[in-house]
Design goal:
This protein has helices at residues 3-28, 31-39, 42-49, 55-71, 73-81, 84-94, 97-111, 115-123, 126-133, 139-153, 157-165, 168-175, 181-195, 199-207, 210-216, 223-237, 241-249, 265-279, 283-291, 294-304, 311-323, 325-333, 337-346, 350-364, 368-375, 380-388, 394-408, 414-417, 426-439, 444-452, 455-461, 469-478, 483-489, 493-503. The chain is built from 34 helices and no strands. The longest helix is centred in the N-terminal third of the chain and has 26 residues, at 3-28. With 508 residues, the chain is mainly alpha-helical.
């Protein structure tokens, strides 16, 4: 047998391996094929190909493994159990850029499913290698490494701390300064994933100088980058007053308000989330947002969109209004009540309705003037109906009840309270009747109206426990009227009158 024929055997074997890994990689890209591949024992066949002498076979084998592991946690588990991770980690330091990208993809695909699988990646020493890849010359390698680190960090604070301890943060801050948009996006996303777990982790990101670079990118034309930048700043600002103040000091106002008008829904949502995370901390930070025109901008944003995009804006208005009478009045003056009422009526998701109810309660809870502004919008019957609707979630019922209580305890605008007398359950009725008992003794016009609109009649029909607070309120109201009037409107009085008519013997 000639030398050529001998070499031909090797060439055929190499071609067969190449065809095999390419076919598997292509098949693994379609979810419907994955189960068949798994049952055919694809994992054990791909493993030796990761150490193949031919670089393209190695890369394609890694790509196929990544696609399989990405599909579900069973396959990701199989990668861990098959001792594939140590091989990948060893190769990360010495192979070419294509292999590094493929290997980082496998690590990301395994790590994304659960904290346990991410922990397996940490234990095999992958973090140090991924951090080395963040210094690679090729931006694609940096991107793949950053993505894998983000998927590990997002699970919990321990894994996030492991990423920090491996030295990733300063390099990620350098990555957001690179010219490639894709790399900027992933690095910002990873910084967001690290920051979200605790004030200490967020502080690590701040100490590496991330805020200034992130703030500069708020006006970047790329929507996906803006989403990640706003998310990262939100995850830093949410933890404490100090961190929120550092974000504000990076001069994000008023530029961040332009994001609320963005055509991308997620940019809007993340922009509103950032403003909410700052506003919630102190009255001073909320006042700063009001002065920058933030409340009016958020109100416009809520009015112009639908669904979950509205949620952070709704909550932000609630936080601002909760801080003080003046800040709540700023929400009212900026015409914040109508869009909140619209959210209550238009939205289908209970948690969005609950947030709108909570926000309205915060606006109306300060003084009679605040409560009147909410009551005039005719929102009280809607809140009551939602509270009494058996289909409402427990959270929605709780929030609407609390909002009603907050507003009713301050509301002295009787025309808004009267319709509620006919439908309210006893625990809400107590607050409604209580308000009438405060106002009627001092207002003769209101006393007259209360009779002509049927309010007094309704109060006589309420069955209150003797000695209860509700009974006390009813007695106070009844004491505002002559006894015969009260008797006239009491249930059964017409029967008594008819009986007297029947028993009356006219004197002829």
């Amino acid at each position: 047998m000639s030398q050529r024929q001998v070499l031909q055997v090797f060439e055929q074997y190499q071609r067969a391996r190449t065809q095999f890994v390419q076919a598997v990689a292509e098949l693994a890209a379609r979810p419907q094929n994955v189960e068949t591949l798994q049952n055919a024992g694809v994992m054990s066949l791909l493993r030796p190909l990761l150490l193949d002498v031919v670089p393209t076979i190695q890369q394609t084998a890694a790509l196929a493994l990544g696609r399989l592991a990405n599909y579900n946690d069973d396959l990701a588990e199989a990668v861990v159990k098959g001792d594939i991770l140590p091989q990948l980690v060893c190769s990360l330091s010495e192979q070419n850029r294509f292999y590094k990208k493929a290997a980082a993809f496998v690590l990301r695909a395994v790590g994304k499913h659960s904290p346990q699988l991410a922990q397996a990646i940490v234990q095999c020493g992958a973090l140090e290698m991924l951090v080395i890849c963040l210094e690679d010359f090729d931006p694609g390698v940096k991107e793949a490494a950053s993505w894998a680190l983000g998927y590990i960090a997002r699970h919990n604070s321990e894994l996030s701390q492991a990423v920090v301890d491996a030295g990733a943060v300063p390099l990620l801050v350098l990555c957001i300064q690179e010219p490639e948009i894709a790399l900027k996006r992933i690095a910002a996303s990873t910084l967001s994933d690290i920051s979200k777990h605790s004030p200490e982790l967020a502080q690590t990101v701040v100490d590496a100088g991330a805020i200034a670079h992130l703030a500069q990118m708020i006006l970047n034309p790329d929507a996906k980058l803006k989403r990640q930048v706003l998310s990262a700043l939100s995850q830093i600002a949410k933890h404490s007053v100090d961190l929120a103040e550092l974000v504000v000091e990076a001069e994000i106002f008023p530029v961040v308000l332009t994001c609320l008008k963005d055509s991308d829904e997620y940019v809007k949502k993340n922009g509103a989330t950032l403003i909410r995370e700052i506003a919630k901390h102190t009255p001073e930070l909320s006042q700063l947002i009001v002065n920058a025109g933030g409340v009016a901008a958020v109100i416009d944003c809520i009015g112009s969109c639908r669904g979950t995009v509205r949620l952070p804006g709704i909550m932000m208005l609630g936080y601002v209004a909760a801080h003080s009478e003046n800040l709540s009045m700023a929400v009212i003056v900026s015409k914040g009540i109508p869009p909140l009422c619209a959210c209550l009526i238009e939205e289908h998701e209970d948690h969005i309705k609950a947030a709108a109810a909570w926000a309205l309660g915060q606006v109306g809870r300060h003084t009679p003037e605040h409560a009147r502004a909410v009551a005039v919008a005719n929102v009280l019957p809607t809140l009551l109906a939602m509270y009494m609707d058996t289909r409402s979630s427990e959270d929605l019922q709780m929030k609407t009840k609390k909002a009603l209580k907050n507003i009713l305890q301050k509301c002295t605008y009787l025309p808004a309270l009267e319709p509620l007398l006919h439908d309210a359950p006893p625990n809400i009725m107590k607050h409604i009747v209580g308000q009438f008992s405060k106002v009627l003794p001092h207002d003769s016009k209101a006393r007259r109206l209360f009779v002509t609109t049927g309010g007094l009649k309704k109060v006589q029909e309420i069955k209150a426990e003797p000695g209860s607070l509700l009974q006390e309120y009813i007695n106070t109201i009844n004491n505002c009227y002559p006894e015969e009037i009260v008797r006239y409107y009491s249930p059964g009085y017409s029967e008594i009158l008819l009986e007297r008519v029947e028993n009356y013997h006219p004197v002829l």
